[in-house]
Specification:
Elements: H1 9-32, H2 35-40, H3 44-104, H4 113-116, H5 120-123, H6 150-249, H7 252-255, H8 280-360, H9 369-372
């Protein structure tokens, strides 16, 4: 099987590049090896066209550079504006953070301020200042079981309890008021829904009543029409049955008339559904024809068996001939292989002699002028 190479996109691109280089080489060769242009001068229109193309290319590049520079200036201005906005936003955030720290995160409100307070000694109360006159530094300050701030703490707890109770009462009143408003709104919504449902139910009952009346009238009309149609069909069926009974009683089938079975297509043909059977003469003819058909079938079967035997003999002779031809073909193939091997050996000897001739005679000669004249034929 031949292996066809399908060109892909890379191969087509490479072929286009080779064709383009070949065309350029031909144009360059026509210019360089042209004696007139080499001695008189170059193609001035072509050079002017090149200059114009270079100038247009330079102008296009300058236009692109100018557009790029203008876009860079716009981007720089936008970046400056955005940077200024970012600095202003950061400054505002820092100011808000400082205000929040000064308002809600003061050093005096920290949990460990009493440990780090530089004025702790100045603000410290005298010893045992909660229950009377202060005592000396060497006096006992605390005894097991005593509570010096009990009265004050009791007042604070009572006030806190009253505040909590008042807050709970207010919250309960607000919750009760909100619940009442929600219940009122819910009851209004339920009443509106019930009223709407009543209207819809009334309208639906009225529609159903009208639809029932219309269906009743339509069904009564259909029943009357059906009853009338059934009466007509019953009368028609009774008339058809009476006609069919009369026709069957007076037909040739029930009277068994043998003449009705004769066909108009021939005297030996009969009508199937009126045929009453064969007579004795027709039966004798049928049996005689049946015996003749059996004898013909037997003769045909014997002829087929004889022909099958002849075909078997012919097939065996063909098989023997094919086997003999295969043996002859194998012998010829061996003879051809032997001749081919001898020819290959002879070709190998000729190839060796040829290589020896080229190595000793052809490749030892010195270059002539014809050898050097083949160079400098291209522009590269």
């Amino acid at each position: 099987m031949l292996k066809l190479q399908i060109a892909n996109a890379q191969d087509r691109k490479e072929a286009q590049n080779r064709e383009r280089r070949r065309q350029c080489e031909l144009e360059r060769r026509s210019r360089i090896f042209n004696a007139r242009n080499r001695k008189i001068g170059v193609d001035l229109p072509f050079l002017e066209r090149q200059v114009q193309e270079k100038r247009a290319e330079r102008e296009e590049q300058d236009r692109r550079n100018l557009a790029f520079a203008q876009q860079m200036i716009k981007d720089s201005n936008l970046a400056v504006v955005l940077e200024a906005r970012e600095r202003e936003e950061r400054r505002r955030i820092d100011v808000e953070i400082d205000e929040f720290r000064q308002k809600y995160q003061r050093k005096e409100d920290s949990r460990e301020f009493d440990l780090n307070n530089p004025d702790a000694l100045k603000m410290q109360l005298p010893p045992r200042a909660s229950d009377g006159e202060p005592v000396g530094l060497s006096s006992a300050q605390k005894f097991e079981g005593e509570d010096l701030a009990y009265e004050e703490r009791k007042k604070i707890m009572a006030a806190q309890k009253n505040a909590w109770l008042e807050q709970q009462v207010q919250e309960r009143k607000a919750a009760e008021e909100e619940r009442k408003q929600a219940e009122a709104a819910y009851m209004m919504a339920i009443k509106a829904r019930d009223a709407r449902a009543g209207d819809l139910d009334k309208l639906e009952r009225e529609c159903r009543y009208r639809l029932g009346q219309a269906n009743l009238r339509y069904n009564e009309a259909l029943a009357a029409e059906k009853k009338q149609l059934e009466q007509i069909m019953k009368e028609q069926e009774e008339a058809d049955n009476a006609a069919e009974m009369y026709n069957n009683l007076t037909s040739d089938m029930l009277t068994e008339n043998p003449d009705v079975a004769k066909s108009a297509l021939g005297k030996n043909r009969a009508i199937g559904f009126m045929y009453k059977g064969m007579n004795q003469e027709e039966l004798k003819k049928f049996y005689a024809a049946q015996k003749e058909q059996m004898a013909a079938a037997k003769a045909k079967r014997e002829a087929e068996e004889k022909m099958e035997a002849e075909w078997q003999a012919l097939a065996k002779s063909i098989q023997r001939e094919v086997a003999r031809q295969d043996i002859e073909d194998q012998r010829k193939r061996r003879e051809i292989a032997r001749q081919l091997m001898e020819e290959n050996q002879l070709l190998a000897l000729q190839q060796k002699e040829r290589d020896k001739y080229f190595k000793e005679v052809v490749y030892n000669n010195t270059p002539t002028d014809d050898y050097y004249s083949q160079f400098n034929t291209t522009t590269r």
